[in-house]
Amino acid sequence: xxxxxxNKKYLLACSYGxxxxxxxxxxxxxxxxxxxxxxxxxxxxxxxxxxxxxxxYCYKYNIGIYVYVNTEAIVSNLEEEAREIRYKFxxxxxDRDGFDALLVAHHKDDxxxxxxxxxxxxxxxxxxxxxxxxxxxxxxxxxxxxDIYKEDIIKYNNDHxxxxxxxxxxxxxxxxxxxxxxxxxxxxxxxxxxxxxKEIEEENKKLSDIKCKLNDNDIxxxxxxxxxxxxxxxxxxxxxxxEKLPEYxxxxxxxxxxxxxxxxxxxxxxxxLKDDFxxxxxxxxxxxxxxxxxxxxxxxxxxxxxxxxxxxxxEKRGEAKGIKDYPITIRPYQxxxxxxxxxxxxxxxxxxxxxxxxxxxxxxxxxxxHDNEVIYIPRYQSDFNLNKDKxxxxxxxxALKK
Length: 402
Prior knowledge:
The chain is of the alpha+beta class. The protein has 13 helices and 20 strands. It has helices at 18-29, 47-60, 78-96, 108-121, 150-159, 176-183, 190-215, 222-225, 230-242, 252-263, 314-317, 348-354, 359-362, and strands at 9-13, 33-40, 64-69, 101-103, 133-136, 139-142, 268-274, 277-282, 285-290, 297-299, 304-306, 310-313, 328-331, 338-341, 344-347, 367-370, 373-376, 380-381, 392-394, 399-400. α1 (18-29) packs across α5. The longest helix has 26 residues, at 190-215. The chain is elongated.
């Protein structure tokens, strides 16, 4: 018996295989409001016949059915591209006709297979095995058969004369899932499967404890990160990096590299991630950032500057900051820049270090230059309060002293 809400309308992903046909029959017998969504990939010669048989079955019992016949050529990753095709179709139907959830007929053997695949790939899942409920493309996805073994589904279908088709490609060991199913899980008896299911529960409990620990602390704090085990740090880094790079996977090798950086005496370190993103150690914190910069700005007279990086009212405060001669150029730091303080020159980079300025801010910090001489540099402080100075501030959560 299914434990679903009968006040909701469900969309059933149905391939005409034994699992989805079993779920279809349960939904029909138990009086749920639902419709069927079927994708005919035309990968196999039986595809059109399966589509016709499913249509006939739905028409017989007055069940709504949506069918998408694929015409796209798939030339690379068959599993991944097929998944994208069907979920795009499901999403269109789901949104257009106002379904409350998408039902998928994954069963207990699928759950065990997924867990064994995760162990084989040594990745860091958000859930071990298959989650009973999740969100995909903005759809609520429910898997109500995760407590039922495949053999029980087949027996029920055969006993009740429920039609279905077997996809013979599942018997080919082309994909990792098929190899695990046909070469490993096939030889597990019921007891061994139950032991594996118990192991999945235990791993998800450990994972839940890790997530609670990370949620209760600041994962950007280096002091906190250094207290974590390698697996805990891996999840912390995954959470941190995936805010900007959702598909990024942190390996244990990467974790070891980050741990060494966190333990080192260097205050500012950049670790390349992907594209223009870096994992940045900046004194006592770790964060993911892009290392931006800006094009020089030439100002011919006192004016009001308000761009995406900083705000400065030169009319009101320019002269008070020693900015009297124009034109001036506002530009980022360049190697070799010096700034005169009380008749002696100080390397600008040294000032940045003394101010404990984070690395990413050094790339966008404005220097005011006249006749090739740096005449003014805003002073950095991490605890700046905008109310102290409304005439001049940097717009990246940090700001400037008076």
